[in-house]
Every structure is written in structure tokens, then in C-alpha cells.
Amino acid sequence: MRRILVVEDEEKIREVIVAYLKKEGFEAHEAAGGESAWSELANQPFDLVLLDLMLPDMNGEELCQKIRTAYPTPIIMLTAKSSVSHRIHGLSVGADDYMVKPFDPQELIARIRTVLRRTNQQELLADRLEYGEGRLMIDSHAKQVFVQHKPISLTPSEYKLLLVMARNSERTFSREELIELVMGFEFDGDSRIIDQHVKNLRQKIEEDPKNPLFIRTVFGAGYRFNGGSL
């Protein structure tokens, strides 16, 4: 069970967040201030920290920097400040994502899951992944992809896109999810860039790019990697 630390001084907001986290299967811990949050982090590991910027005893950005120097734990900032400059500053001091109050708890849960997927290195680790009876092989240690036992050249974004989808075979990803997983939350371009990356990948790994066997389009939803029988 993923363990989340909720650092929020407003009790009602904290209670709502904790209730939603528990409903979604997370183990939720609470801290009303920076000092208590730091004590919680020192006593046990957490998978993610939800960090309010306006704390009574410590600036949230200072706590974020302090956490980042000591722990690899991903951080989502919670704040009433909605300007782009504040968001950029929050990301620059070590936050992985940024939620502006008031927010929909369901959206927060979705953001949490996205950040956890993106920061969980185990999702991107595998000695060797093979599909289509060896027609496609990914060697994650060498960061090399083979088609019909011959190495092919991929850009870093193409490689990460392929690896993320292959490690989550049969799961449908939206363009927005792939943008965050591959390009990062700070990417501010058109999400349709994923379409171009998919097109390029199909040209390199598919026998017939117009009738792809590995990377399937799910109309109205996004893309799915077919790792089963071809």
C-alpha cells in the first residue's frame, strides 16, 4: 500500500484529502506543520508528500527544498497561488507537480497516481523485454531496442515512450498521461507531439506501420501497447 504524507494546516481540507486517499486505497498520514512533517519523514519512508505552501511554522517552499536535499520522495505542492510564476518557482525548488486550491479531490488522486507512476523507477526497469516471439526486444540496461534481432536507433523520447508503454502492456494511455510520463509535467507544448512520436516509433518497429501490431490506437482514448499474441 502506497504511503502518502499530507502536510496541510487547514484541518477540514486535510480531513477531506485523507478521506479520499483512504477511499482510493492509500495509507494516509497527517501533519499540520513543517516541523511535524519533518519528524514524520525522519521516522518512516513515504511514497509521496502533499505539501501546502502556507504552513504556520515553516514556508512550504523551504520545507520542499529541505525534503529534496534529504529524500527522493516525490512532492505535490498545494497552494492558493495560481500564477504561472508561482507554479514555475514551486517546480524549480523541487516539486514534481502543483495543485491550485480549490481543487477537485478526484483530480488530485489522478495527479498522485501520475506522479507515482512517473517517479517509480521500477516501472522502467527490466533486463530484457521481448514481444512477438522475439520480433521486438528491449534491453533496458543497454537502452537498446532490437527489431528482428537487429538494433534500431531511437531518440530518448521515443525510447522512453516505448518502454513506458511496453512495461504497462494492454493499458490505454491518454496523450496527456504520456506527455507527463515521457516529457515531464513542465512540458508546455502541444500534446499532439505524442502522435508524432508514435508515428516515428511505428516506422521503426512495425512491419506495416499503417497496420501496427504493437502500438495500437484506441480511438477517443489514446494508445495501448499490445504485448500479447500478435
Automatic annotation (TrEMBL):
<dbReference type="Pfam" id="PF00486">
    <property type="entry name" value="Trans_reg_C"/>
</dbReference>
<dbReference type="InterPro" id="IPR039420">
    <property type="entry name" value="WalR-like"/>
</dbReference>
<keyword id="KW-0238">DNA-binding</keyword>
<keyword id="KW-0902">Two-component regulatory system</keyword>
<dbReference type="Pfam" id="PF00072">
    <property type="entry name" value="Response_reg"/>
</dbReference>
<feature type="DNA-binding region" description="OmpR/PhoB-type">
    <location>
        <begin position="126"/>
        <end position="227"/>
    </location>
</feature>
<dbReference type="InterPro" id="IPR001867">
    <property type="entry name" value="OmpR/PhoB-type_DNA-bd"/>
</dbReference>
<dbReference type="InterPro" id="IPR001789">
    <property type="entry name" value="Sig_transdc_resp-reg_receiver"/>
</dbReference>
<feature type="domain" description="OmpR/PhoB-type">
    <location>
        <begin position="126"/>
        <end position="227"/>
    </location>
</feature>
<keyword id="KW-0804">Transcription</keyword>
<keyword id="KW-0597">Phosphoprotein</keyword>
<dbReference type="InterPro" id="IPR036388">
    <property type="entry name" value="WH-like_DNA-bd_sf"/>
</dbReference>
<dbReference type="GO" id="GO:0003677">
    <property type="term" value="F:DNA binding"/>
</dbReference>
<dbReference type="InterPro" id="IPR011006">
    <property type="entry name" value="CheY-like_superfamily"/>
</dbReference>
<feature type="modified residue" description="4-aspartylphosphate">
    <location>
        <position position="52"/>
    </location>
</feature>
<protein>
    <submittedName>
        <fullName>DNA-binding response regulator</fullName>
    </submittedName>
</protein>
<feature type="domain" description="Response regulatory">
    <location>
        <begin position="3"/>
        <end position="116"/>
    </location>
</feature>
<keyword id="KW-0805">Transcription regulation</keyword>
<dbReference type="InterPro" id="IPR016032">
    <property type="entry name" value="Sig_transdc_resp-reg_C-effctor"/>
</dbReference>
